[in-house]
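Structure ticket #2291
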Amino acid sequence: MKKTPILSRTILAVIVIAIFAWSIFPIQQRDFYGVFRKLAVKKDEKIDKLISLAEQKQKDKGIFAQVALDEAATDLNMDLTEYVPVKGATGNRDVISFVREKSSGSIRLGLDLNGGAEFFLLLNPKKQDDTEEGKKRKLEIEENFNSYRDAAIEILRNRLETQKIYETEISPVGEKYISLKVPTVSKEEKLKLLNLIKMSASLHFRLVHKDNEELISQYLANPEKFKVPSEYELMSTAEIAEGKKPVKKFYVVKIRAEMTGKGIVNAGPRTDQYGQRYIFLSFNGDGTRAFGKITRDNVNRQLAIVLDGKLYSAPAIKDAIEGGEAQITGNFSMEEAQNISNALISGSLPIDLDVEGIFDTDPTLGRESVKTGAIASFCALIAIMVFMLAYYRLAGIVANIALLVNMVLILGAMSAFNATLTLPGIAGIILTIGMAVDANILILERIREELRKNKTLPNAIDLGFSRAFLTIFDSNLTTIFIALVLLWLGSGALKGFAVTLTIGIITSMFTALFISRLVFDLILKYAGIKTLKMASFFPETGFDFLKYRYLTAVVSAALIVVSIVAFSIRGKDCLGIDFRGGTRVTFNFAERVAEDKIAKTLEVNGFASPKVSYKVNMIDKDAKQLEIILGEKDVSENTGIKEKIEGILNSAYPALSPRGGDDVSIGGLIGWEFTKMSIFALFISIVGMIIYISLRFEFAYGIAGIVALVHDVLIAAGVYVLFGGELSLTVLAALLTILGYSINDTIVIFDRIREDIGLMKNKTYDELINLSVNQTLNRTVLTATTTLIAVLFLFMIQDASVKAFAFAMTIGIVVGTYSSVYIASALISIWHKPLRGEKGKNN
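Resolution: structure written out below.
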């Protein structure tokens, strides 16, 4: 970067920052009432009275603006569609959803922060024919219904991921229902998702009768007396030839399919030379062979392409098609073609879905929780910036500028990639603030070392950046590999976590290596600074860390045993509602009470971390419900759960007046399919890291790094469980973060050991390891300190899931720092390739 002119680098930096800053505008949600007033076509006294009442309700009850406006409109008996015309609106909730969309910021907010929609789905086995094969198939579905239900959940999750919606909540409800919650607010999005959800995507390739033309002639001559041949059915489609108008065509199609769409690996909309839209299909190896055989055995026959029971086309097979490609022609809109393509890629549903209800859900968190989260983020940022300024002084200002730019880039990238921001996501960003300074710390500590060698400041900065580059590259590349594997193989919240992690890593590297260097060059050119003064925890140390290798091995073994015992004793009790499921209790109610108040009341009465939210049935607008999700443990320890909660709430909040409703068991958000893919993704990540570290260092380093990584995650999870914690999706995200933090910390030390081996020929391997750990000790302690500062602010947030995240991360940071210094280094000391001339020197 030094050879590149400062002016051109400055212009590039300004352009990049401006683009990302523009993409996050508006960075926060605009005033809901202001947007409503602006959209209103009628400005009269009723509008002023409505908004005034809504503002008073919001102040008195601590509820969100959209909820307050809905209640105020109900109290005043106002039809909001008369004031804000929305296409297709059937009631006030449609108008409020429209205003909520228009007032939202650039980043999609999750169910907890902004609400969304819930689709209540009934599962029905697919209808089978009366043949023996059909009866066997029906019996198999009935006997393995739960497996088919879990498969349907994963397919729905995959379909939503094609729309870049990762932060969903999908869980079984009762025996034959699925609850699907998505952070979607507009009517158009709900309709689009409804069509995508209902689509079975069952693709069949079926042969057309060889005497089709003759049979259709008979049918057209006398439709009433026409008899369809056995094992065939009459189907029709609208065909378009060379851009002409659609013409209805009839075909006699075999009922039994020659092939299904199971082998499809890619699909997408295309347009032919006449402007007609079609769907391109690509098969995997098995699909290619099957399709090749069908076309090879049926040359000069017609092959009907039937999707969800509808005939789209019946092209003639002129030659065997061995290339593994096909296409579906039809009168598609672009959106229809894209939705069908997405559904085909994600898989066909093994059972039919009937939409029993669509609910508009309100945010699950109270305004105070959201406000506290924002304050915690700001405080964490300020605390870390003050720390960096106090410790590194002028260099700390450079690091702080990079940190601020990093925040702009992260938020801009989240907006560009349509990522969903949840309260745990805010927690992740706070953690990113702490970890983002790590690359700057590495650079600044390298600059300090060069200054101690009496190098000039320009030379010290040059050498500091060049020598820190490989370390930053290696440590971040291993973490980003984990993120990319999770993006490839993970699903749901894991994929959402991977998106945020990838964004954070890339922006942190850019700001540390490019922005920080640019600022330093500007200071050198225009400020005339000759040196940099910095504080230091450990000026120059010579601790013999390997001296305690056997003691630390015993301590680690003891902690691992304790962790395993903790898991064994608690058994299923250590799994939270995301894994085990629980019970959903619903009530009708008279007057709304803030969600966080109800949750606190239930916690005081012995219910652990209840999830409270409100929702409105979009089919029956008057059916407003209070929903409470309880863990399995709460249900097992309390009989008459619904009646007990109703009594507690009636006593605490008479105005709420909960009544009616029901209680039903729900499954976990994490099913077996999700678990299998997650385990496989982590396995591939670990194998990939071993290979990369072995190539960059030695095989012993790869094994040592992974052993330290597993050591950290196992102990962090075990201690967390030992203190009564429950494993959830949020805690899983914390453990994945620990995984990245641990390997990052370890690689920094490995990289210094490799460098010292090349520079110092008169030391034993153990001496080099001790030297390297001492040389990186300032960086190790500083990174742990800044990350802990960020994590401690998470405890300010009044949300059980965020506090669980913070607790697990606190354990992980401490254990990760300990293992990097004592465990990983000890392992490579025991198992390493001897240095040249080292024999007899290493003891």
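Closing remark: The chain has a mean pLDDT of 82.
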